[in-house]
Amino acid sequence: MDMVVGKNYLESLLQGEPQLRPSPLSWFNNIRASAVERAGTLKIPTTRDEEWRFTDISPLAKLSFQPVQEAPEVKKEDIARFYLDEAQATLVFVDGHYMPRLSRGSNTASTELVVTNLREALMTHPREIESHLGRHAAFEGKLFSALNTAFLHDGALVIVPRNEAIERPVHLLFVATQAESASHPRCLLIAQSGSAVTVVEDYVTLQEGAYITNAVTEIAIEDNAQVDHTRVQRDSMNAFHIANCAARLGRSSRYRSVSAAFGARISRYDLNAVMAAEGAECDVDGLALIKERQLADTHTSIDHAKPDGTSRQLHKCIVDGAAHAVFNGKIIVRAGAQHTDSSQSSRNLLLSARAHVDTKPQLEIFADDVKCAHGATVGQLDTEELFYLKSRGLSALGARNLLTYAFGAEVIDRIPVASLKRELERTVLEQTQRVEQ
Amino acid sequence: MIYPDSKVLLEVRDLHATVNGVEILKGIDLTVRTGEIHAIMGTNGSGKSTFAKVLAGHSAYQVTGGSILFEGRNLFDLKPEERARAGVFLAFQYPVEIPGVANSHFLRLAYNTVQAERGREELDPLEFEDFVREKMKLLEMKPDFLDRGVNEGFSGGEKKRNEILQMALLEPKLAILDETDSGLDIDALRVVTNGVNKLANKDNAIILVTHYQRMLNYITPDFVHVMQSGRIIKTGGKDLALDLEAHGYEWVGTGKNAPARVGA
Predict the structure, then answer these.
(1) Angle made by CA atoms A226, A145, A99, in degrees to the nearest 5
(2) Separation CA A332–CA B16 (nearest Å)
(3) Which of A73, A166, A196, B202 is spaced 20 to 30 A from A237 at the CA atom?
């Protein structure tokens, strides 16, 4: 039964694909073609798949979504509130389509930084793209990555030149404007050796309908480079958001990731970080703040493939109403990855009796000289913390509100862009406060 | 200091309390008047920290007998936050870390809550910043204390300074300092105790809960009480602390003195 539904569904999803124009680059056409083929052989995952055990996406298969063939008219005023004051460059995509008029690229003389639409960059930067696109986020076993790749057309390309530190953030803004639409955002970020950059990947909506966002992001961090990657998902409460991110870390490189999920009826974020050379460092932090009937699923994998790597992970969920949060955090320490230092913490706060969390830390350690710590908590606010605040005069409700806010703000505080941090702190504040009955 | 015209601030009579059904306090009597500094000393497990928590109203401790009057009011009628607003302050032995909330925000929230209760003016963030920086000088605190998360990553000494800073802001009538000397190096101890001395006046009172005599080299108590097995078994002046230091707690237990009735 599931298979039948799945098959029809996939056919319908792939319908828009033939209308994409072929590229003059054969390797690019080949990637797309093999992704189409692969997508055709994969099924929609069900809760019988281990990787999707807690996340039932069958509601997705009951709806029909079509790619938007032409982007609608969106004015700068419509999205003014989403622009970041600090941004060095901003790329705006509306329903999957690149919008040059809304964007501000960065090809100034002072820097070699490339921030541009992937499709056009195929002509100007074919070598860089070919050596990374589709090579980090594998789609062999992943239906949604395969679908995204099958629909490859517009996307964000960021190339940070060797030894250049970009002080201000690069903002990649994906705007959803139409119900029943499907978009497949794609980002490719290449931080060349010794470079440093902050990138904000931001999913927003102008309407509250049902639509699907199916994103893939690939991040290549070369030796001694640093990438700060902030990901914000604030889709419609009726939307489906599925995303795969793959980061590859070079020698002594550093990857800092903060992801925050607020929106979507059902969201699923897979982050795979591979520490592919010695001495890499990664911080992977996440917050899911959900309510009503939302489901937010985060699957992360931090792969210590080489020695002397450090990873730190703090994942938090604040779950209200009848919402359901899922966290699966895998840490792999490969044979030979000695002196790995890894810590993972999953902390979950339930704000209602019907709220639900499934958390699963997963350690796979094949080296012996390593330090790995992990822990998970699920529950209500800590009574000692509440007592501390009350002993300073705060009311029981005031103490509860402050601690609930703080629980989320701890992750948001790690976002390195001040204006976005303030904005999201306000979101956390609004969504965590209760009033006197 | 003992003043002739002092008022009774705290009256504890035959206080009994349990934790998880185990009786920890077995009949405590204590009277504290304005202007006084009391030291409560005792070994680990003697019940002195439990007594401190009961005064502040921690819900893990059940009062099973006796009474506590604070300025003539039944303290048991007041929730922890009401006690704080009424002027009872506990400096925690292990202050809680609250990442995600800036220390300045927390301090201002506490300050304004207590100010409002006293019918005094609340301060906006800028006004408060000036105000708190003055108070921080008292404790020789670095300015970045305000921007960090509440106690987040603070050293033991920094946490204790932050507690005394809160005491300075909230101006309690009765401050209970629970092992404030623990984990402090000699410089931090000097700074913290110097701050406490400056905050002590004829209208407030301080109860120092401590295991060791060393804090009392800096803060001179008017009364020293020795706790053992949930009771105050001996009361004396500041010299009692020196005797304890010289002879150890066992010396009190084997002494011929009957358990003292305190502060009568």
Answers:
(1) 70
(2) 54
(3) A73
Hey, are the CB atoms on A391 and B109 less than 8 Å from each other? no
**pLDDT per residue as tens digits for the range B112-135:** 999 999 999 999 999 999 999 999
Residues of B in contact with A413 (CB under 8 A): 99-100, 149
Give the mean pLDDT of chain A.
93
Q: How far is A385 from chain B (nearest CA, A)?
A: 6
What is the DSSP secondary-structure string of A156-218? EEEEE-TT-B--SPEEEEEEE--TTEEE--EEEEEE-TT-EEEEEEEEEESS-S--EEEEEEE
| Chain B partners within 8 Å of A391 (Cβ) | 56-57, 80-81, 83-84, 89-90, 92
Size of interface A-B (CB pairs under 8 A): 79
Residue from A289, A390, A429 to probe the interface with B (highest B Cβ count within 10 Å)? A390
Question: What are the distances in angstroms from CA A200 to CA A134, B11, B35?
Answer: 21, 60, 58
ipTM confidence score:
0.94
Q: Is the pLDDT of residue A16 over 90?
A: no
Query: Which one, of A118, A77, A117, A73, lies nearest residue A95 by Cα?
Result: A73
| Chain segment A182-230, per-residue pLDDT in tens | 999 999 999 999 999 999 999 999 999 999 999 999 999 999 999 999 9
Q: What is the pLDDT of residue B252?
A: 80
pLDDT above 60: residue A127: yes
Take residue B18 and report the two structure tokens written for it. Answer: 């349990």
- What is the DSSP code string of A276-331? -STT-EEEEEEEEEE-TT-EEEEEEEEEE-SSS-EEEEEEEEEE-TT-EEEEEEEE
| DSSP letter (8 states) at residue A104 | B
pLDDT number for residue A21: 80
Of B58, B95, B98, the CB nearest to A406: B98
Could you tell me which of B171, B254, B202 has the C-alpha nearest to residue B35? B202
Contact in structure between A430 and B150 (CB atoms under 8 Å): no
Q: Tell me the one-letter amino acid at B39.
A: A
**What's residue A387's pLDDT?**
97
Mutate: best of B82, B101, B114, partner A, most A CBs <10 A: B101
Model pLDDT, residue B95:
96
Q: At residue B89, does pLDDT exceed 80?
A: yes
Contacts of B116 in chain A (CB under 8 A): none
pLDDT score recorded for residue A44: 87
Q: Which H helix or E strand runs over A37?
A: helix A26-41
Q: How far apart are CA A331 and CA A301, in angstroms?
A: 6
Residue B138 distance to chain A (closest CA, Å): 20
Q: State the nearest Cα–Cα gap between B250 and chain A, in angstroms.
A: 33
The answer to whether A402 contacts B109, with C-beta atoms less than 8 Å apart, is yes
Single-letter code of the amino acid located at A55 = T
Chain B residues in contact with A403 (beta carbon < 8 A): 98
Contact B81 A396 (CB under 8 A): yes
Comparison of pLDDT for A156 and A435, the residue scoring more: A156
Nearest to B131 by CA among B101, B158, B111, B147: B111
Mode of pairing for the β-strands spanning B223-228 and B231-236: antiparallel
Residue B138 to residues A236, B141, B159, B184: CA-CA distances in angstroms? 51, 8, 15, 17
Is B264 an interface residue toward A (CB < 8 Å)?
Answer: no
How close B111 gets to chain A, by Cα (Å)? Answer: 8
**Model pTM score:** 0.91
